[in-house]
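Tutorial, part two.
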Amino acid sequence: MPDYNAEDIRNIALAGHSDAGKTTLTEALLAAAGVIVEPGSIEKGTTVCDFDALEKEHLHSLDMGITSFDAHGKHVNLIDTPGLPDFIGRSISVLPAVETTAIVLNARTGVEPVTQRMWKAAENRNLCRMIVVNKIDAEGVNPGDVAAQIKDTFGAECLPINLPADGGKRVIDCFLQPGAEATDFSSVEEAHGRILDQVVEVDEELMELYLEQGEELAPEQLYAPFRKALREAHLIPICFVSAQTGAGIPELLDILARLMPNPSEGNPPPYAKGEGADPESIDVSPDPEQPALAHVFKVINDPFRGKLGIFRIHQGRITGDTQLFIGDARKAFKVNRLFRLHGNEQIEVKAGVPGDILAVARVEDIHFDAVLHASHDQDHYRMRPSECPVPLFGLAITPTKHGDEQKLTDALHKLESEDPCFHVEHNAAANETVMRGLGELHLRVLLRRLADQFHVEVDTKPPSIPYRETITTPAEGHHRHKKQTGGAGQFGEVYLRVEPRERGQGFEFVDAVVGGVIPNQFIPSVEKGVRQVLQEGAVAGYPMQDIRVTVYDGKYHPVDSKDIAFATAGKKAFQDAVDKARPVILEPIVKIRIVSQDSAMGDLAGDLSGRRGRISGSEAKSLGRIAIDGEVPLAELEGYESRLKSMTGGEGTYSIELSHYEAVPASIQKKLQDAFQRSED
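Running the prediction step on this input gives:
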């Protein structure tokens, strides 16, 4: 067993926007803890967590990196996550593995889009949060303004527990050992008082001593209520550092090890049992004596070392002799070898305890979001899924070399197994294989991996837009299917009703047949016929959604009625009803955020309006930059990245996420219907 237990572990994810300095901060912490001799350099490609060739080429983290260190008698697992918007899904997916999310900000740019999205994702999982303001010694930084922006954005419970001094060259503790030194903003006494006021609110006995009796509180009296305030999000500590110079790094190391919650103090992981929308919640505790339970939050397909499954142990012990099941699989695998990760280095360990983050290699059935467990009683346990953004950017791809089709399929399957925001779909209507991700950079990186790692070259083109179809008014449909071929015939008659549902409610099939006019055994066949139209579309060949279909009458023949007859009757009755129900084509509308210099505001707003877009607001950023929020049809964003670069001189960036579907204009619907009719002829 390791020489530590769950109470000694701290699991922390560094999250935030790109250029906040998360990877440099990781290097500084590793050096301060004595794990590495000196911090590596991003520019030189010598950092622990950015070890991939593409990361070194782009000078940005493109995936999460894991390392660990020991400090002040605690074992700290640190996950460095990417900050580019295109890779936010990879950052969100690590949150089930940690108790604490440290949101890292660039002191020059303050709160940015990915910062806010990662904050929200951590908040949704009830994780402990802290804020690390990095680059406090950069030119033009006003730490007081940054602290005010943090409070305005995330709440008044965000309080500094140290303060920068001498222009960010050092920091001064204002919590445990406050002094009387001068700082760059506020004062140590004032900051200390605000922290005490916040902390004692979670401890009535301490509050009485502090407020009513006026007693001085010793540092050791503050540790327990501080951790409780952290767990309840009653206090969000702000720490100021410069990862480049090391200012504030020893203090941050101390805070991470001493004050952040351990696996027994954090909120229990959200395991559930069973399927459906309302599964039964399961209590999981970091008890080493219970059957082992772990969650796979990352899969890596290494061409030389095979598939690597990275998991967090939530319950029980795991050793080289442990037999584990994957989900509801009936056959267990033997762990054999366990690894702790230090960037690209795999360090073999003998065992893991609750709270450990480890990896197992060469288990082909392991997959992202899998639950590993030691008992069949846990067969149907699963984790609440991460709320990752929907991948919308698409490229239609075909292998350049004839005969590489299977090779491409296998490679895409492996890439899909690694990345929760990369999906591959086949558009039957357009006969397209489409890869979808969160942005153009996301897909460019995956195309490079296809070529470099899997040796598959592909041709690309813009994909068809994922339109949908629905109806706008109730209607009824009927069809009698009768076929006589000399022997036994086919007979089935169906009456059904269709109704539109609210956007996003999906499809509902209702059996309202009474009196056995359609025998029960044929009802699934009717639904099968309806679902065929749902998939193939009734207007322009796109899948249908948000429709309720109620079958209420029909007829059958005791000899000639068969499944195929009622499937055909159900299909054609549904088509008949849809034709009368004023069908429309829906298009995806995305939320868009554009960040650029404020001088480009007019051009950007005009261009968005010309693309059938709507601006919902704008926000002034630091250094003369502005963020524009709006909505725009996804169909209007083809080639937008190059157009944005042209309008902003290469300085503009944007991110999108699915908002909703709405009906296309009549002119576009006619164009899509005409194109579909021509393809059918």
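The mean pLDDT is 90. In part three we will examine how such features are distributed along the chain.
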